[in-house]
Write a structure and sequence with these properties.
2 domains; globular; Rossmann fold; 23 strands; binds glutamine; 19 helices; alpha/beta; about 550 residues
């Protein structure tokens, strides 16, 4: 098969949209009738993203097969509508781990194993595997960080080696930033020229330059970039800031991104009809949304210096947006730090001003008591409430304390010696924790769940068997199930293999719903996720 590879690399600085560029190209290629997959390579030594704190890394995205990845994998899934796997994510740590294991197993036949070429060769074989297992016409490879960093040299080396061997099958897209300094008031191309030159130093000539800026790039600057970076002005794609990341595929298409790529790799459109029409309809619907839905996310936030990161909840935010658009409305999200309810319980009354409240996932005991206060308020005041993973555990703790009157009910994650551990760690997890085996050992990825009939869960899913993604160590303690149910907690979803509680709800409430899994990870912009769609629908009615 004549498979094509497109590397997406960043110059000047990170955080300017390599992930969205990759995701948008993915969508465009698919709209032209090609199969395409995307892969993220992160330069850090961590084997995966699972062991990093939220301030270091932001959200950890989880695939069906349980890989703990970078949030870009989430964007690839949202833009392509397809589920990806561990083959779509690679780190320096994973590459070295594999090479060292192979060496220990004598798989290099007594050779001296060297950084070059064995490391880039391993990278190349993984890139090829991602294409082969998905049987894709195109594989997009996003290299994390920016060029010129010592950390990703070996990944660029892999790109160079692949391009050298098969120039017509490998493209390199450089995503670069064009600043408009206030004092000058003019868009500057020099940083992009330097980035392109840095790439040349690594033996690579960019084929396309995506120019990110606050404004569109005019022809004068396109020509300048063309001259100094050695590319056709038509291969400079203007990518100004947009209201929404989902606008980018259409913006790229205006700049003929798809056409340029196909021309370079010598392919023509597989499907004649314009394949972005569904996407266009969705964008139109999104832009015309009139109603406003006020959602509070009660969580714990992560501060770095003067900045607060909401990055850790990116999939939750996207899932709310998708569901709002589906309901012809637009989200108004407020971030509420639960710790303030611990200091002043009365403050929780502010939640009555919202159409719905979400308590998202999380780890560690900071802010937990405040979240319990919020769950209690939503239950008693009948405010639509959605608990995600930790959020569900919070709802169970609150119910145990205040309805079942189980004194000091808690999760053993927060209070090892509490008298009523309604949330507890699974048996097999205890052994892992005792031996400090933290990496990749949570209950991860897709697990089945059976839905009980005559429940809200059944109304939402309209089927009995579902599968959702997980990332947690603690569970509802089955010992307390009878007492929780006797007091009116409905357990509406259970994992059939291990008899674990997956969904809880209560009656006589517009919507009080908790899930042990992360439905936000599977929400797609064109359809939304049934739980979020239902939640937003109820919130609008409120
Ligand atoms: N800390 C909880 C657990 O490990 C919840 C995890 C989460 O919200 N993802 O079970």
């Amino acid at each position: 098969m004549d498979r094509k590879y497109i590397f997406v690399v960043g110059g000047v600085m990170s955080g300017i949209g390599k992930g969205i560029t990759t995701s948008s190209i993915l969508r465009i290629l698919k709209s032209k009738g090609f199969s395409a997959t995307a892969m993220k390579i992160d330069p850090y030594v961590n084997v995966d993203a699972g062991t990093m704190s939220p301030t270091e890394h932001g959200e950890v995205f989880v695939t069906d097969d349980g890989a703990e990845c970078d949030q870009d994998i989430g964007n690839y899934e949202r833009f392509s509508g397809e589920d990806l796997t561990k083959d779509n994510y690679l780190t320096t740590g994973k590459v070295y781990q594999t090479v060292i294991n192979k060496e220990r197993n004598l798989e290099y036949n007594g050779k001296c194993v060297e950084v070059v070429p064995h490391i880039p060769n391993e990278v190349i074989s993984r890139i090829k595997r991602a294409g082969a297992v998905t049987d894709s016409d195109f594989v997009l490879i996003e290299i994390g960080g920016t060029i010129g960093e010592y950390q990703n040299l070996l990944f660029l080396e892999a790109a160079r080696m692949m391009k050298l061997k098969n120039p017509s099958s490998v493209l390199v897209v450089l995503v670069s930033y064009l600043p408009i300094p206030k004092t000058i008031g003019e868009m500057k191309t020099k940083p992009t020229q330097s980035a392109s030159r840095l790439l040349n130093e690594a033996g690579i000539q960019p084929d396309i330059i995506v120019g990110r800026s606050s404004m569109p790039i005019d022809n004068i600057r396109k020509r300048k970039i063309s001259t100094f970076c050695n590319i056709d002005p038509e291969d400079v794609i203007s990518a100004p800031d947009t209201d929404s990341i989902y606008d980018v595929p259409l913006l790229f298409e205006k700049e003929k991104m798809g056409e340029r790529i196909l021309k370079k790799v010598g392919k023509s459109v597989k499907r004649k009809r314009e394949g972005l029409s569904e996407w266009k309809n969705f964008i139109e619907k999104k832009n015309n949304a009139k109603k406003r839905v006020k959602i509070a996310i009660v969580g714990k936030y992560f501060e770095t210096g003067d900045f607060v990161l909401t990055d850790s909840y990116i999939s939750v935010i996207e899932a709310i947006r998708h569901a709002c658009w589906k309901n012809n409305s637009k989200e108004e999200i407020s971030w509420i730090n639960s710790e303030k309810y611990e200091k002043n319980k009365k403050k929780v009354e502010e939640l009555s001003h919202y159409d719905g409240v979400i308590v998202p996932g999380g780890f560690g005991d900071r802010g937990v008591e405040g979240k319990i206060i919020a769950a209690n308020f939503c239950r008693e005041k009948k405010i639509p409430f959605l608990g995600l993973c930790l959020g569900m555990q919070i709802a169970v703790i609150e119910f145990a304390r205040n309805v079942c009157k189980l004194k000091d009910a808690n999760s053993t994650e927060f209070s090892k010696k509490c008298s009523h551990p309604v949330i507890d760690v699974m048996e097999d997890q205890k052994e892992l924790l005792k031996n400090n085996r933290y990496g990749g050992t949570m209950r991860l990825g897709a697990y089945e769940c059976k839905i009980a009939s005559k429940t809200v869960a059944q109304k939402i899913y309209k089927k009995r068997d579902i599968s959702e993604r997980h990332r947690h160590r603690f569970e509802v303690n089955n010992y307390f199930r009878p007492i929780l149910e006797e007091n009116g907690l409905t357990i509406s979803g259970v994992n059939p293999q291990h008899d674990l509680v997956e969904i809880i709800e209560i009656k006589k409430h517009p919507f009080y719903f908790g899930v042990q899994f992360h439905p936000e990870l599977k929400s797609k912009p064109l359809t939304g996720h049934p739980i979020f769609n239902y939640f937003v629908d109820i919130a609008i009615k409120r």
